[in-house]
């Protein structure tokens, strides 16, 4: 009641005061007046974010810290909470902020809704493999509806980091190695979360993270130093963040890493020069968990006070869980080390997002117990999760069409801990997804087929329950299950082996130095293969793995990632051919870990080579350069041929547009989807140029025998990059255009940019 009355008085007074200047929006009038009433303590309070006393996603302060925090809440020293879920919990804390503090400024509640809130969709890396932008946006929309129904109004997603190193556990969280696809997906996810109208109760503020270059940790070890040159930063890392900003993303999150020796949290270059300066970002930047205080161990800040000073002046507006802002900023302002204008700018940004969300109008708009019951976990949400999961599956190999499996009359032996695991498919960053709530592969096969299925675990992959904080306990010694599994495999028509990573083996803090099948799974696979070669390998993992042996020996390989709640049903529908797999990899799969970082848009070098036979070329002595499976690769139960590649002109000026076309034919017996990918190679420039770069794609469906012509327009925007002149521009010279079913496409047509 109080806030309503306050709101009316405020607006009436303000509109009257500013009536002479119509261009000042109501929002600005409201915020500047509210700020004129705020004490310095209350302003600093808006810059302080606390964890919600449970489910921490980072290191927690020592025990007993809760009491002080409730006091801070009541004294208006908290602007946001994270990891508070459920209408009951949110409204209880919102009530304190709105009804017990002096100005009644509502809290904004953030949570990692990365791939679903309660209905868990495939991990983002899996979703990106669908190349189905509409489905990806819908997946984010559903996640937002469920999160909003649970009282939340802000998600720490999309993660838009570009990365090239499968040793880094957080590759599960993004959209793969490519900047163009990453930018398209960043836009879709922001639109999905934020919808058409941020003040609607079913939309939530999104957060582009981790700004920036967090995906380039040295040696693939999480939180490690990122040393990349300015051109890699501008051409490969920044564009997805800019795409998120152009899509209207409300917030950014900075990153744990240093970028070229400066912690991102303390980087004026990133947060003020680029984000708020060049790009004109008007939302706010939240630090990553405790990253302000982490500038001390980084060797960049002398102590907590210094860290708070550096972060605030660098443009980090809100402090997630270091408590340094709420403890130190007042003193820093009084000492003149942080100007009040820095505080006012940060607070204006934070209040602006709360205003956009409609929280001043109704702080309890997200707190509807009825909506919480009906929206979360609905049947249609689960159907959408199933659809997204099917589309995310990538067929890597299918020798002599072993797949799809007939739906009845088959003797199937199903082997693997993960085949009957209802927890791992939820993956890491599973939001409020309930443990053990996923459909298993065993259940899926029984749901969609009438075969006789014998299930044998074969080997424990891991022991006990895992969660965000603890490392999975892998089994490296106990092979007692091998014998039974081999026996069951002997008489099977088909052996389906579900192997890969436990759900928390990828994600934050999950870097690995090896990329093989964890534990004793590879040994089990080879042992069963000696008994029965008719094996379908179903992979369940959060990153590219080293599948060299499997590719050489196993007739059928399906990449199914961690597909979320509907995992088993989606996998079964693909195994049985109810859905013809259409996914394409968005991250290169290496032949072995020694090849990483590995990516398709590499530079040729002055001695380009491919095989280890070429000694004085850029090659290895022990493995060829190419990935085992390239970016953009994925098979189907049918086949597609590309023909008649053509260009509308062999010359182009910067004002022209040319059209590249190709014909695609489904030469198989079943309907299928294909992702036609268009790549451009810039043969030379003021910087060394990549062998090719994705500049367009089209997802199309073709009936057996059907041919479609696919065309892409090429204008100057497709030729522009950040050049040695520190400008976004195209440079004259020769270009080649490729259209194919993966990044290994060779056929191309060339043209010249003449001015
Ligand atoms: C974590 C992650 C970040 C997440 C935040 C809140 O450490 O790095 O992505 O959004 O803390 O959970």
Describe the structure.
The protein has 755 residues and is an alpha/beta fold. Among the domains are: 389-595, Glycoside hydrolase family 3 C-terminal domain (Rossmann fold), CATH 3.40.50; 640-753, Immunoglobulins (Immunoglobulin-like, Sandwich), CATH 2.60.40. It has 20 helices and 28 strands. The strands form eight sheets. The chain has a six-stranded mixed beta sheet with strand order 11-18-17-16-12-13, with helices on both faces. A five-stranded parallel beta sheet has the order 4-3-2-1-10. Helix 7 packs parallel to helix 8 (179-194). It is globular, with a radius of gyration of 27 Å. The protein starts with a helix and ends with a strand. The model is unreliable at 18-22 (pLDDT under 50). Bound molecules: alpha-D-glucopyranose (GLC). Alpha-D-glucopyranose binds at residues 57-58, 82, 112, 156, 209, 288-289, 508.
Write the layout of secondary structure elements.
Layout: H1 2-17, H2 26-37, H3 40-46, E1 48-51, H4 66-74, E2 80-82, H5 87-100, E3 108-111, H6 124-128, H7 133-149, E4 154-155, H8 179-194, E5 207-211, H9 230-246, E6 251-254, E7 258-259, E8 262-263, H10 268-278, E9 284-286, H11 304-314, E10 319-320, H12 324-334, H13 340-356, H14 369-375, H15 379-392, E11 394-398, E12 408-415, H16 441-448, E13 450-456, E14 462-463, E15 473-474, H17 482-490, E16 494-500, H18 521-531, E17 535-540, H19 548-553, E18 556-559, H20 567-575, E19 640-647, E20 651-652, E21 658-666, E22 672-682, E23 693-702, E24 707-714, E25 721-722, E26 728-729, E27 733-740, E28 748-753
Parallel strand pairs: 1-2, 1-10, 2-3, 3-4, 5-6, 6-9, 12-13, 12-16, 16-17, 17-18, 20-28
Antiparallel strand pairs: 7-8, 11-18, 14-15, 19-21, 21-24, 22-23, 22-27, 25-26, 27-28
Helix pairs in contact: 1-2, 2-13, 3-12, 7-8, 7-14, 7-15, 8-9, 11-12, 15-20, 16-20, 17-18
The structure holds alpha-D-glucopyranose.
């Amino acid at each position: 009641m109080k806030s309503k009355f306050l709101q009316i008085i405020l607006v009436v007074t303000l509109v009257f005061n500013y009536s002479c200047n119509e261009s000042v929006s109501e929002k600005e009038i409201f915020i500047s007046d509210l700020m004129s009433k705020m004490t310095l303590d209350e302003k600093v309070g808006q810059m302080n974010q606390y964890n919600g006393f449970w489910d921490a996603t980072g290191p927690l302060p020592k025990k007993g810290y809760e009491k002080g925090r409730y006091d801070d809440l009541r004294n208006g020293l908290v602007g946001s909470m994270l990891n508070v879920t459920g209408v009951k919990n949110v409204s209880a804390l919102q009530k304190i902020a709105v009804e017990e503090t002096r100005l009644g400024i509502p809290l904004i509640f953030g949570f990692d809704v990365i791939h679903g809130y309660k209905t868990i969709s495939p991990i983002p890396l899996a979703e990106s493999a669908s190349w189905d932008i509409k489905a990806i946006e819908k997946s984010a929309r559903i996640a937002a509806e469920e999160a909003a129904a649970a009282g939340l109004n802000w998600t720490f997603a999309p993660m838009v980091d570009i990365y090239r190193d499968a040793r880094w556990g957080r590759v599960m969280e993004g959209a793969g190695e490519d900047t163009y696809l990453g930018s398209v997906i960043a836009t879709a996810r922001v639109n999905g979360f934020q919808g058409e109208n941020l003040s609607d109760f079913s939309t939530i503020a999104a957060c582009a993270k981790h700004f920036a270059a967090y995906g380039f940790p040295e040696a693939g070890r999480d939180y490690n130093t990122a040393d990349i040159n300015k051109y890699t930063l501008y051409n490969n890392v920044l564009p997805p963040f800019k795409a998120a900003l152009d899509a209207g993303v409300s917030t950014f999150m900075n990153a744990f890493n240093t970028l070229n020796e400066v912690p991102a949290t303390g980087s004026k270059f990133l947060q003020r020069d680029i984000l708020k300066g060049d790009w004109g970002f008007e939302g706010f930047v939240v630090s990553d968990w405790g990253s302000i205080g982490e500038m001390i161990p980084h060797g960049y800040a002398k102590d907590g006070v210094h860290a708070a000073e550096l972060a605030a002046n660098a443009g980090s507006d809100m402090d997630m869980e270091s408590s340094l802002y709420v403890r130190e900023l007042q003193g820093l302002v009084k000492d003149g080390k942080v100007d009040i204008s820095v505080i006012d700018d940060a607070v204006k940004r934070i209040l602006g997002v709360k205003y956009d969300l409609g929280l001043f109008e109704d702080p309890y708009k997200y707190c509807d117990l009825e909506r919480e019951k009906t929206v979360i976990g609905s049947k249609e949400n689960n159907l959408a999760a199933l659809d997204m999961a099917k589309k995310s599956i990538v067929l890597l190999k299918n020798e002599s069409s072993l797949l799809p499996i007939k739906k009845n009359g088959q003797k199937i032996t199903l082997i693997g801990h993960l085949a009957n695991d209802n927890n791992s498919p939820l993956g890491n960053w599973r939001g409020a997804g309930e443990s053990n709530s996923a459909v298993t592969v065993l259940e899926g096969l029984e749901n969609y087929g009438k075969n006789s299925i014998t299930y044998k675990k074969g080997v424990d992959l891991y022991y006990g329950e895992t969660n965000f904080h603890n490392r999975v306990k892998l089994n490296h010694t106990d092979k007692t299950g091998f014998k039974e599994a081999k026996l069951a495999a002997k008489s099977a028509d088909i052996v389906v082996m579900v192997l890969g990573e436990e759900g928390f083996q990828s994600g934050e803090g999950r870097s690995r130095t090896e990329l093989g099948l964890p534990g004793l799974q590879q040994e089990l696979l080879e042992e069963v293969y000696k008994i029965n070669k008719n094996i379908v390998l179903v992979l369940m993992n959060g990153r590219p793995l080293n599948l060299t042996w499997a590719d050489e020996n196993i007739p059928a390989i399906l990449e199914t990632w961690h597909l979320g709640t509907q995992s088993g049903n989606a996998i079964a529908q693909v195994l049985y051919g109810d859905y013809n797999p259409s996914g394409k990899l968005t991250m290169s799969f290496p032949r072995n870990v020694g090849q990483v970082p590995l990516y398709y848009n590499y530079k040729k070098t002055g001695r380009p080579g491919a095989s280890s036979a070429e000694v004085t070329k850029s090659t290895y002595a022990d493995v060829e350069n190419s990935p085992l499976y390239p970016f953009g690769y994925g098979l189907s139960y049918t086949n597609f041929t590309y023909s008649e590649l053509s260009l509308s002109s062999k010359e182009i000026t910067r004002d022209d547009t040319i059209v590249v076309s190709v014909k695609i034919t489904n030469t198989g017996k079943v309907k299928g989807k294909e992702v036609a990918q268009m790549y451009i190679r810039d043969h030379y420039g003021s910087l060394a140029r990549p062998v090719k770069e994705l500049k367009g794609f089209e997802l199309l469906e073709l009936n057996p025998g059907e041919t479609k012509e696919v065309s892409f327009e090429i204008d100057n925007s497709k030729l522009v990059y950040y050049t040695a002149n520190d400008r976004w521009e195209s440079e004259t010279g020769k270009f080649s255009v490729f259209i194919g079913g993966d990044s290994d496409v060779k056929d191309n047509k060339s043209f010249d940019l003449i001015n």
